[in-house]
Amino acid sequence: MVVLTRTTVAGRERVRGRRRRGEDLTKVLFVLPAAVAMIALFGYPVVKNLLMSLQDYTLKTFFTGVAPWVGLQNYSTVVHDKLFADAMLNTALFTIGSIAFQFVIGLGLALFFRNRFPLGGLLRSLLLLPWLLPLIVSSATWRSILEQDSGILNRTLMGLHIVNDPVPWLNSPSVALIAVIGVNIWIGIPFNVTLLYSGLSEIPDELYEAGQLDGATGWRAFFHITWPNLRSVAGVVLMLGVVYTIKVLDIILGLTGGGPANATQTLATQSYEKSFVDFKFGQGAALSNILIAISFVFAIFYLRSTRRAVDE
Amino acid sequence: MISKRIAAALAGATTVSLLLVACGDNGGGGQSSSSSGDSVKSLTILDYYNNDPDKSLVQKGLDSCASQLGITIQRETVPGDTLIQKVLQQASSKTLPDVLMLDNPDVQQIAATGALAPLNDMGLNGDGVIKGMVDATSYQGKLYGLAPVTNTIALFYNKDMLAEAGVQPPKTWDELKAAAKKLTKPGRYGMAFNANATYEGSWQFLPAMWTNGGDETDLTSPQVAEALQLWVDLVKSGSASKSVINWTQGDVNDQFIAGKAAMMVNGPWQIPALNKYPKIKWDVVTFPLNKPDQTPVAPLGGEAWTVPLNKDQAKQQKAADFVKCLNSDANELAWAKARFTLPTKLALLDQYAKDVPSMKAFAEQVKTARARTGKLGDKWPDAAKVIYQAIQLALTGKASAQDAFKQASGG
């Protein structure tokens, strides 16, 4: 009997141990696909890009596989490039200009569409149009709209006698960046409207009703009811906006290709040019890492602010 | 039990390593390692003629050579601006095609990486081919590609508009400026060209720069500045649109077709598009000269066919034979006639110009034309970048024509 129980206890323990090990294995197996996907799709490119930025990675490397280690030389080359300061400034102007106007116009439109009116739904869905067009199509279309001599915009402005001479939208170094920002604002509005509109519809109507009794209407209702309730959504919209805008490439390439006279070069276009026009992949990678680092700062900022919101 | 498992594991490991060895062996070239000796049955081909009519016209030439050699071909076409990226991707995965088409200024750059087989060792040479093209497709004294046909740029003009304004096709820069001014009226510019911030912008500037004795080895010379001044004068005087800094060659052609430009710098590949509008009566002259004693020098365009290095010697030789066939006299003439390009053999040019009168000016221009990579080789892209940036600086008024090149080259 005694012997028997002892063996069963030992057996049971062994079974339990095996089961626990089995459970652990199951857990690992469940995590594994996600982990593999993360490493393959996010980890590898980032690490590869980091390594590439520390190597002399050129056209030759693709054929021979040889990429000499150069340390931080690529970074110092791109930072001392005569276009780097301009590209930084343009990136900042492009990002801030785009986000500020996209957000304000988007919020205005979202507030406007919160009022129910006939055809409101249709108009709101039409507003999504810029978002649905392929960027290469929108930039080609805008390029012809902004054409100095025969573009429809200048024709209209001159026809209405708003300007006397055609505006060199894409032809003048001092105007081109403004034009490019303008097009990017147009593209970004739907994104802002959609998210802010859904944020607005989350705010319970009772708050406004209660506010109305206390005399909070119009602007006061906006500042005391709408804005405090919209803040977390607004935070998400702004942060995503920055991360999306800072790396915009296709619109600029399609409109000006970084010109005229490098007036619309940003870090993204410079990185593209270094890699795929000059075939200096190491320098291109260095520039894109700088870009990633800047986006990363905003991402951390965003994650911290949302965590605080959850904690509260 | 255990030993069996180990044996199985070992067997598995051996298969894997064998496979790896097999892959490594096959590295240099096409897909099949089994074909050896003279039993080469098929070749893979990569080019960027991805739009009709070029796509099917080139296919015809490729097919005729394939049947002459008794092989089949698997051809892949990609858009022009993605070819180099495709080649790089194939190079790193060791899946380069047996026959590779490259734009002629890219040949030296790719040859410098050691990816291409020298053609001299396989019974090919550039005898009788215009010097500019041999320069473009040679690297360190060896021939790496041959181009059956070539092209260049010259001055197109609208006959009716010039006749109406009583203007003769310009022969000198002064005549060009005067003619452009006279031809300009509301809604129409006298002259159109491409000065955008890409290699295309540099390419369109070369006829002026080279004809005037300018040289890419010294971009700060007065001859180069004079050429840039011509572009500046045309834009500043309003004879050419300020939009030239954003136009592609296709845009320039569209302006010409729409009647918004009376003259343009462009190449013969636009002729099929122009011929769709029979109402437009046009002709072509060589690019005007700054001083009467100069000869027009234009850049050579066109694509060369190369043979990437292949471990399979028989296949590599067959690919070289294929390139040789593509560059036969008969094929050169057939391609040139069908696609409004020019044969690259000097002996064929005069007869060709007689047969195809609309190509006369181009045939003249090609004889003296230079390759972009002729002097600087694989360093040409750096110079080309300085050129288009200087043009942009000068045309936007950020620098004078005299200072633009110094400023663009970082001085």
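qc> Confidence is low (pLDDT under 50) at residues 1-37 of chain B.
qc> done
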